[in-house]
Amino acid sequence: MSTSNFTRRGVLKTGAIAGAGLATPTFFTAGSASAFTNDPTGSSVTFGFNVPQTGPYADEGMDELRAFELAVEHLNGEGDGGMLNTFSSNALGGNGILGKKVAFVTGDTQTKSDAARASAQSMIQKDGAIMISGGSSSGVAVAVQGLCQEAGVIFMAGLTHSNDTTGKDRKRNGFRHFFNAYMSAAALAPVLKKEYGADRKAYHLTADYTWGWTQQASIAAATEAVGWQTVNNVLTPLADTDFSAYIAPVLNSGADVLVLNHYGGNMVNSLTQAVQFGLRDKMVNGKQFEIVVPLYSELMAKGAGKNIGGILGSTNWSWKLQDEGTKAFVKSFGTKYGFPPSNAAHTCYVQTLLYADAAARAGSFNPCAIVEALEGFEFDGLGNGKTLYRADDHQCFKDVLVQKGNAEAANEYELLEIVEVTPVDQVTYASDHPMFAGGELGECNAGA
Amino acid sequence: MDALLLQIMNGLDKGSAYALIALGLTLIFGTLGVVNFAHGALFMIGAFCAVTMQKILTLSATTYDPLKLDFLGNPAMIKTPYVNTWFSEDFGALLIDWSVPLSILLAIPVMIGLGFIMERGLIKHFYKRPHADQILVTFGLAIVLQEIIKYFYGANPIPMPAPEMFKGSIDFGMMIGFDANQVIYPAWRLVYFLFSTVVIAAVFAFLQFTTFGMVVRAGMADRETVGLLGIDIDKRFTLMFGIAAAVAGLAGVMYTPINSPNYHMGMDFLVLSFVVVVVGGMGSLPGAVLAGFALGVLQSFASMNEVKSLLPGIDQVIIYLVAIVILLTRPRGLMGRKGVMEE
For the stretch A294-306, what's the b/e string if a residue is b when 16 or more beta carbons lie within 10 angstroms of its beta carbon? Predict the structure, then answer.
C-alpha cells in the first residue's frame, strides 16, 4: 500500500501561498536581493518627479519641474548652489548624494489620481526611482502617497493643501513640506477680524472634493471662532466653469463676505464672476462686501488679473521674502528661467533638498533610514524660517504668509503682496486634532 | 421673485453660448450630415483670437529704466505698447481697452478660413463614412487643436477684461420696476446676450432672405434635386461650414470676459451643446436656438439652492435627463424633421 504526504488541505495551502507570491506586484519582490526597493547599486541614484504635464494644472507642473531640475543641478554641484549655501544642515556638499550622481525621470499625473499612480508605479518599477515627488492636487498626493507606502519608496509631496494628506491619509513613507487648510485658516482668521471686523456673515462656495471640504471646514471653524457667522456653504462641482448660478443667490442672502474655497481655474473663474456681479461694490448690513480666497498661488493671481485687488488669502511662501534662503533660491531660479519662482516651485525644490540631506545624514537610501532622519528634523535657511518636520504626522511646521491682491501691480509677478507673516506657533495644532483624526502613520516600509 | 429673475437672466446668458455653438453644430449636420465634435474647439479658438488680438495690440517696445530694479536687482524692463507710440497714448489705451470687441474683426476671417481648411482638408473625406468615424476623427481633431493652443498659450486661464464701460454691473431691476439693488447684473453678460441674439438673427436672415441662403435651405431639404438643377451645392455647403465656424468663434470671442479662456474651454461646452442639438432636433436651426435657451434656463433653475436641497446634484444631470426624456418620447427632438433619428 502506498502512502502519500499530499493532503487536500496541504495542496490548497501551498497553492494559495504560491498564487499570492505570483500575484504580488514586482516592486514587492524585485528588490528582494537588496535590503530595500530600488537600492542604487551604480554610480547614480534616480528620483521620480511626478507632475501634471498635461491638463489644467500643467503650468503649475512645469514650474515644479523647473524647480526639480534646478535642485538636481545644485545637488550635483552645477550652478550657483542655490539654497545649499543657506541650508542649516551641512550634510550636502554639492557632489551628489553619498557619492552618487543624482539622475531623474519625470511622469505626468494629468491631475488624475489613477494616471498619477500609474506614472509613479512606472517610475518605481521601470526606472528604479527611489523617491517620488511632485503633484498639484491633494487627490493625487493622497493616491501617490499610498502607492509609495506600498512600494517601499519615499514620497515627498509637492503642492497638496488638504488636511487629509497628513491627517486621515498620512503614511509613514510620506512627507509634506507645504502648509495645509487648517494652517491657512489659522493664519487668515485673525487678519480677517482685524481688517473686516468680528461681526460678519460669510457665504462659502466650495469645490466638491477632499481639498475643498477640508478647506471649508477649516476656514469656517476659524472664522466662527473670531465671531463670524457662516450663512451657507454651497458645494460646486470641480468641472464647473460658470459660477453665475451660484453667485446670484449670494447677492440677496444677507451675507457680507464670500469665501471662495476654490483653487486653480475654478478660483480664477469664480472670482472673476463674483467681481463682475458687483459684489466688491456692494454694501450689506452697513458694511462693504468682501471676498476671501483662503489659498492663493502666483499662477492663480496671474489668471485672475486685476480682479484680485484687495482680496486676502494665504500662501506657503513668497519670492518677495527677504531671508537669505529665499534670496538665494530666487536668484538661482530667476537667472536660469527669467522670472521668479512660484509657491509650488519652492516647495518642490525644498523637498528634493530635504530628501537628499536626509539620505546624506542617514548614510543610506534605505527608506526607513530616511524616515528616521526626517522625523523631528529641525532646519532653517530654506525660505520659511525655522521649520520642523513633525514626527507624529510628517507635516512641516513653519510660518505662514497672509497676502493681499494688488490690482495696481507693475507686472504679473507682483500681484500678491505680503500683509503678515503669521508665526508658526499660531498655526500649530495637536497631531490628534479632530480635523486630522482617523489616520495612522503605520510602519515604515522599505519594500524588501 | 428677484432671485428667479436673476436665474432666468443667468440661464438666458448661458443659453446664448449653448445656442450659438449648437446653431453651428446643427447647421453642419443639416448641410453636410457630419457630426462635428471639433465644434467646441472652434469656440475655444475664437476665444484665443481675442487673446491674440490683445497680444497684438499690446506688442511693446522694451526699454530699461536704471532707476527701477527688477526682482533680481537688474534695471527694470519698461514696456511701451507700439499703438501708444504710433497713435496718441489715449487712442492706444482705447484700442487696448476695446481689444475683445475688436477681436471680432480678426475672428471672422480666421474662423471662416479655418472652417474651410477643416472641411476641405479633412472632413470631406468622411462624408460617406459612418457617424461613429466622423465623431472619432473630429474629436481627434479637437484634441490636436487644443494641444496646439496649449503649446503656444500655456494651460493657465488668461484674463481678458471687458471694455472699461462694461466692466461693472448695472441695476437691471430698477430698469424694469424693481426696487434699487434687487437685481444687479454684470453689464458684459447683458452685452453677450444681446450680441448672441443679433448673431442668431443675422444667421436666420442670411438663410431666409438671400438667394444663397435659399439654395442652402433647399439643399438641406433635398440635396440631390438641387444638385440635379446644376447648382454646385458642395461649394455652398463648404462656405456654410465656414460660417458655422465663424458663429462658434464669435461666441468664443465675446465669452472671454465672462470666463478667462483656457485651452480646455471648448470641451466644457461641446457635450452640452451636442445635447442641445439632440433636444432641439438634429439639423433644426430654430430647434437648436430654442433648446439652447430653454436648457440654459433650466440648468440655471436647477442650480438654485432651494432646488438642490430637494434634489442634490440635479444641476449636473438636468440637461441629460431632459435629453433622455426627449429621446424616449420624441426621438427627432423638439423641432426636428420627421424621420430624422427616428429610424
Answer: bbbbbbbbbbbbb
